[in-house]
Amino acid sequence: MNRFTGKVAVVTGAARGIGAATAHRLAAEGAAVAVLDLKLEAAEAVATQIRQQGGTARAYVCDIADLDAVETVFARLVAELGGLHILVNNAGITRDNLFFKMTRPDWDAVLTVNLTGAFNCARAAQAHLVRQRYGKIVSLSSRSALGNRGQANYAAAKAGIQGLTATLAIELGPYDINVNAVAPGYIATAMTAATAERVGAAPEEHQRGAAERTPLRRVGRPEEVAAVVAFLACDDASYISGQTVYVNGGAR
């Protein structure tokens, strides 16, 4: 498939996990991908892999919590890659703790990166998308948006992503811009491995426990989330907007 030939896509937090899988998927289908991450060396590794596989990608470093830095890097990548059509807001962090132990800095950090970071990137992107009257924004929410013990900050941020998505769909829809979110369940990534370690479990043990609670009896893979992101970013999904799609193996 070449659903993204001639399109430029930005993927934040693209150096690993779901972000890296999404960058690979979009590039494999023809997009020129801006691999955006806080760590340039890690972003360059993903961009290099994409180029070695015949795709087009450039690495960019940016702290998405800094609006000025975001606007600067977006202007640069638009000039270097020749435009902007797709934004995938994937970058995120966790600072898990029970609510009564959670510190204000940990609350602020998670809300700033996961929610304000998505706002910053969408704000920088929309100027280009509105001008051309076309674009796709897909943001990563989470099943944790429904509530998850030890994640008051992360749950609040990911619920905020759903509200931001619904509102941007209303405001940007008249410019033919589709805005949607994807809410993964348990996906085997470095982030969920860190969560396992936080509660004193080996990642494999933690995954087995999650799989037992999932109707499909397994955890998800980053590539499976990337496939849904790619669908929402393509023109086959041109009449879908303001939605949050749960990718969680049927869990309730």
Description of the structure:
The protein folds into 2 domains: about 200 residues, NAD(P)-binding Rossmann-like Domain (Rossmann fold), CATH 3.40.50; about 30 residues, no CATH class. Helix 1 runs parallel beside helix 2, helix 3 runs parallel beside helix 4 and helix 4 packs parallel to helix 5. It is globular and about 45 Å long. The two termini are about 35 Å apart. It is about 50% helix and about 15% strand. The mean pLDDT is about 95. The chain has a 7-stranded parallel sheet, sandwiched between helices. It is of the alpha/beta class. The longest helix has 29 residues.
Features:
252 residues, alpha/beta, Rossmann fold, 7-stranded parallel beta sheet, 8 helices, 48% helix
Map the helices and strands.
Blueprint: E1 8-12, H1 17-28, E2 32-37, H2 40-52, E3 56-61, H3 67-81, E4 86-89, H4 104-132, E5 135-140, H5 152-172, E6 177-184, H6 190-198, H7 203-212, H8 222-233, E7 244-247
Parallel strand pairs: 1-2, 1-4, 2-3, 4-5, 5-6, 6-7
Helix pairs in contact: 1-2, 1-8, 3-4, 4-5, 6-7
Distance between the termini: 33 Å
Query: What is the approximate shape?
Result: globular
CATH architecture of the largest domain: 3-Layer(aba) Sandwich
CATH topology of the largest domain: Rossmann fold
Number of helices: 8
Mean pLDDT: 95
Domain module count: 2
Classify the helix fraction into a percent range.
40-55%
Query: Which percent range describes the beta-strand content?
Result: 15-25%
CATH superfamily of the largest domain: NAD(P)-binding Rossmann-like Domain
Q: What string gives the helices and strands in order?
A: EHEHEHEHEHEHHHE
Q: Assembly type of the shown chains?
A: single chain
- The stretches of 5 or more residues where confidence is low (pLDDT under 50) are none
Major β-sheet annotation: 7 strands, parallel
CATH class of the largest domain: Alpha Beta
Number of strands: 7
- Give the radius of gyration: 17 Å
What structural category arises from helix and sheet content? alpha/beta
Strand order, largest beta sheet:
3-2-1-4-5-6-7
